Amino acid sequence: MSSVDVAALARTRARHPEAVAEAAARRPRRDLLAANGRLMIVAADHPARGSLGVGREPFAMANRGHLLERLCLALSRPGVDGVLASADVLDDLLLLGALDGKVVMGSMNRGGLAGAAFEMDDRFTGYRPEDLARLGFDAGKLLLRVDHADPGSLTTLHSAARVVDAMAERRLPVFVEPFLTRREGPGPPRNDLGAEAVTRSIAIASGLGGTSAYTWLKVPVTDNPDDMARVMETSTLPAVLLGGDIGGDQDAAYEKWRGALQLPTVQGLVVGRALLYPSDGDVAGAVDTAVGLL
């Protein structure tokens, strides 16, 4: 059973919905980067896209109480700076008091639902820049998948550029997660993690909007980790590495991150399922190991 009282959260939401805004208003804030200049963020925005699976468990993230318990544990570990999530998850964490003194990053475009025919038309159905500013949150994140064969990508690209502008107007950092993506047959779209594709995606993301002053990149490690040094030369924007699906090989993922974290523009990690649902079940151990890489 989860140690998070889901019933109490539901009662508060039903009887005192204003409690979310009140918790946000009194939340102690901090600088984006700690004294060591590094950033360790735990990600939990997958459910808002209907992506609930971890490994062979298609609904591993469907139990909200268990997810919140894992998030609270991760956020309590030394060296964890904050969390990336959609509004429903962050509202729960606000009510639980788990976001005090943490970096809070709101997930902005979740309209490209996993497996949908419109998946590449990834509209901004989550946080707006004005929401993040009103709640006193610290940053936003957007996903930018570009499929040259899908017209929906242009809608996403245009919307993303305007969000970069709106975030910059509010002096809020925005983390752009770019991929070149393509469909192969009737299956889901596949992100190309080859060196050339990641290089092009970084170039595209870096040029969005009327200024890049508040833009960060959230990038994958390439299929061949040895290519990362060349790939990351594409931009001077600060970057964090994303965890992605590690396929159950936790140790291999750590080694890939370890090398890329030494590159001059890479400032930290944003990792979700690999830390919240490790194969051995040891959330604290997985988080502590990831923090140690920084």
Main features:
11 helices, 36% helix, 294 residues, eight-stranded parallel β-barrel, 17% strand, alpha/beta
Strand coverage percent: 15-25%
Low-confidence stretches: none
Distance between the termini: 33 Å
Cα shape: globular
Report the mean per-residue pLDDT as an integer: 94
Looking across the biggest beta sheet, what order are the strands in?
A: 1-2-3-4-5-7-8-9
Derived structural class:
alpha/beta
Which percent bin holds the helix content? 25-40%
Q: Which series of helices and strands comes N to C? A: HHEHEHEHEHEEHEHEHEHH
Count helical runs.
Answer: 11
Radius of gyration equals 18 Å
Number of strands: 9
> Main β-sheet: number of strands, strand sense, barrel status?
8 strands, parallel, barrel
Task: Characterize the structure shown.
The protein has helices spanning 6-15, 19-26, 64-76, 87-95, 129-135, 152-169, 195-206, 228-231, 250-260, 273-276, 283-293, and strands spanning 39-44, 82-85, 103-107, 139-146, 174-182, 190-191, 215-219, 239-242, 266-271. It contains eleven helices and nine strands. Strand 2, helix 4 (87-95) and strand 3 (103-107) form a beta-alpha-beta unit. The mean pLDDT is 94. It is of the alpha/beta class. It is globular, with a radius of gyration of 18 Å. It has an eight-stranded parallel β-barrel, surrounded by four helices. 36% of the residues lie in helices and 17% in strands.
